[in-house]
Amino acid sequence: MHRTDAIATLKSGIRLEYVVAAPDDTKSVKETLPLARAGLRVVAPSYRGAGNSSADAQTGHDKFTLARDIYELLTTTLALDSFVVLYRARHWLDGRNGVCPGTSLYRKSTTDPEMILGRTFHFALHQSRGLGEILTEGKEDVYLKHFYERLSYNPTFLSHADLAYYFSTFRRAGKMAAGFEVYRSFEQDHREMLEVVKKQGKLPTSLPVLSTGGQESSFTKPLGEAMKELAENVTATGGIPHAGHWIAEENPHVFVEEVLGFLKKQQMVQSPSQDKSTLPPS
Fold it and tell me: Keywords for this entry (predicted)?
């Protein structure tokens, strides 16, 4: 199910689409419903360029700016004072089961011939300004379908309705370009992340990080090690079975179970037998 609950206009003028699923929401999509039933208020935003969010700028797709957008949405528009960030991207070609700028794994992905010619061939294509747009114009469906299938465990993991939604979204003016801009900012992201860690240190122990991915993805194990370069308290798992790059779509039930298990262990949510009225907002 794909729906737009609201559009927030940020101070910058950027418009962000977001969907909210509450514990009593029976219309949530398959990934948010179990989280909502666990007592969480789930906010699913589309970052700038994705979904129905603004896609009219070549700047602002670096990850610190995207994070500030989401932070403003959560703290100003929705007035939340505490929340858990669960990062994954549904509307573009990137899931978090991949390389993270600011780590040695990211640099390897841009220098190792085995990765450049295989698993991360798209980095060069997506980062070459204008080339991706020229090659995919009028062929968005072909390119996206190839990309989704290539990085999946089960190539048929998306329904015809899902594919139709994504195809129609990316045919709209500026959408493919916005997606490519996310990749074009990676080198900036890498430099900025390294500088932040150098000056401020890693994320402290008080901010626990879950690193997971699909068991069939070659990125999952090295990603867990790479995240330790950015955070002090990292829990790396063996990964989600029967899933490749697109873990939340390929195996949503196990993915949600793993996330909830981590949150309960960190005492960020309560067990189902406890009073859900005491749960923190998310």
Answer: Hydrolase
Q: How far apart are CA 73 and CA 82, in angstroms?
A: 13
- Residue 54 C-alpha from the chain's centroid: 17
Whole-prediction pTM: 0.87
Biggest CA-to-CA distance, the chain: 55
The share of the chain scoring above pLDDT 90, in percent, equals 62
Q: What is the pLDDT of residues 88-126, one digit of tens each?
A: 543 333 334 568 899 999 999 999 998 888 888 898 899
Q: Which one is the CATH code of 6-278: 3.90.190.20, 3.90.1210.10, 3.40.50.1820, 1.10.3720.10? A: 3.40.50.1820
- Nearest-angstrom CA–CA distance, 162 and 118: 26
Tell me which residue of 5, 11, 6 sits closest to 60, measured CA to CA. Answer: 11
Domain ranges of the chain: 6-278
Residue 267 falls in which region: left (phi positive, over 0), alpha (psi -120 to 50) or beta: left
Q: Residue 48 pLDDT > 80, yes or no? A: yes
CB 180 within 8 A of CB 147: no
